[in-house]
Amino acid sequence: MSVLIIGGGINGAGVFRDLALQGVDVLLVDKSDxxxxxxxxxxxMAHGGLRYLENGDFNLVREAVSERNLLIENAPHYVNPxxxxxxxxxxxxxxxxxxLKFLGxxxxxxxxxxxxIKIGLLLYDSFTRSTGTVLRHRFMSRSDSLARFPxxxxxxxxxxxxxxxxxxxxxxxxxxxxxxxxxxxxxxxVANYVSAFGAFGEEVRLRDELxxxxxxxxxxxxxxxxxxxxxxxxxxxxxxxxxxxxxxGSHIVIDNYQLRTAISNHEFFFENDDGRIVLxxxxxxxxxxxxxxxxxxxxxxxxxxxxxxxxxITMILKVFPKAVVSKDxxxxxxxxxxxxxxxxxxxxxxxSRDHRVLLLSPGQGIDFPIxxxxxxxxxxxxxxxxxxxxxxxxxxGRKRQYSTRNLSxxxxxxxxxxxxxxxxxxxxxxxxxxxxxxxxxxxxxxxGTRAANVASFIAGETEETDPCLDNHAGYTRGEITFLxxxxxxxxxxxxxxxxxxxxxxxxxxxxxxxxxAQVVGDELGWSESTRKDEVDDVLSVLSRKHGVKLC
Length: 551
Ligand SMILES: Cc1cc2nc3c(=O)[nH]c(=O)nc-3n(C[C@H](O)[C@H](O)[C@H](O)COP(=O)(O)OP(=O)(O)OC[C@H]3O[C@@H](n4cnc5c(N)ncnc54)[C@H](O)[C@@H]3O)c2cc1C
What we know:
Blueprint: E1 3-6, H1 10-21, E2 26-30, E3 45-46, H2 58-74, E4 79-88, H3 97-102, H4 114-128, E5 138-141, H5 142-148, E6 158-167, H6 170-183, E7 188-192, E8 194-200, E9 203-208, E10 214-217, E11 221-224, H7 230-236, E12 244-254, H8 257-263, E13 267-271, E14 277-283, E15 286-290, E16 294-295, H9 306-319, E17 330-341, E18 355-360, E19 370-375, H10 381-396, H11 419-433, H12 437-447, H13 451-461, E20 468-469, E21 472-476, H14 477-486, H15 492-499, H16 510-524, H17 528-546
Parallel strand pairs: 1-2, 1-11, 2-7, 4-13, 11-19
Antiparallel strand pairs: 3-6, 4-6, 5-6, 8-9, 9-10, 12-15, 12-16, 12-17, 13-14, 14-15, 18-19, 20-21
Bound molecules: flavin-adenine dinucleotide.
The site of flavin-adenine dinucleotide (FAD) has 39 residues, from α1, β2, β8 and β17.
């Protein structure tokens, strides 16, 4: 084997796809499920990072805006332009602080006023102007803003709306990148629930976390893509590094029809008096609210605390004081740790989100080089993967053959452009499978053009009909079997938390969990006691990590 990638979050998956595309034999392992680390805890935004302009991170913002635009084109089934509205309560605040921050003379963030926001948005637009993938920003007067968003705080002076992009299902993008790479040939292999735990000479030691079995592999080089765990992984490979400092962030998902209607298809992006960023954005028919920033050393055990929940609710009421919001509307919560480049700032919000690829040469008892991916955002995974792949290819003495710049992701391939093309695509599936139109549309909304594969699998697998699950009218046994067989589902939580949005959108119940354990268990050959253990584990994970208490 040429390359071992440790970590199957978005960055590891990105490198995996790029190396597979170049024909390199590569193995990707993750100690848990793919995209179960930080990549499952994002704000669901593909964005340039407007506020990073203040830190002087112009190159990062330019790169991220460009990657955002590529994502809209390459993964249109999951990534879509998102109107983002900033309610503004001050005219001039932050004007002096921003240049001071830029010059490194100030470490504290304050609320930004209209003038500073205008300057930032002009700059932001200038990065995206050439492609026209998204619209330019515009300001709206107080009266127009209140007419457009009636629940908005009447103290608002005006609003500014600019465009970023939303990612409906970041975890599914990660899975699809992995599936795309596997489709490129047998030279690319993956194993979830396999951890790298040691190294000696030319060997890396791996452990199957489900069976306890041990293996050794002899890669020519290792890519350490383990996000907030990179220093721990380097340590296990006999390298002492201090490359990242963790910053914990949480989100809640609420079911609130009044507020969901009030925000329409807009994300609201604003700040607390101390400059901390808050976002309220649509997530299907629910609302996602985040995020916090707290230094954190332990990425294994993070969850949204009651203090964070109180903070989020206070922030919603700051902008929408007439909204009726309560804790019992929370259907899901999640937390993750940002792997930020080690920085000196006392405020994690001020640490750069930039990334780099660091080479650790062979030595200290290890015969292979390690490329460590440091920092980075979900949005920039492709460009970070490109950098890591280019360096890897040089080490292997090979040349890049293909670019990933315009490479579609999963169900974004051959995506129909416009309503007529979409109708033709759906009609074809209906003709081939005999499925009802609404069911085919449901699959298309969930999987993009991969809906054709899912539908033909279901049609071939099930002899007559494929009835809905007893506990969820939107899913069938055939669809769950497809996901289990084709998307590396090994545990029940993989399906519930990462291959579908069932838990995140609050569509889960004990009955559904038991039913899903039956379907997944039939496919994976689980015994009755394994099924029961899986159900218990899912209930425990939902309660401990996601604040979901089911009975
Ligand atoms: C609250 C929050 C909000 C965010 N919002 C956004 C956003 O809206 N947009 C954006 O662009 N970015 C956002 N980010 C940043 C983004 O999520 C991260 O930069 C990105 O997901 C990091 O991905 P990764 O692949 O490097 O790390 P991870 O996703 O953490 O992947 C690392 C993987 O390594 C595995 N691993 C660890 N140790 C081992 C081992 N010994 N052996 C095998 N595998 C191992 C882990 O299981 C994990 O799956 C946000 C981050 C947070 C925390």
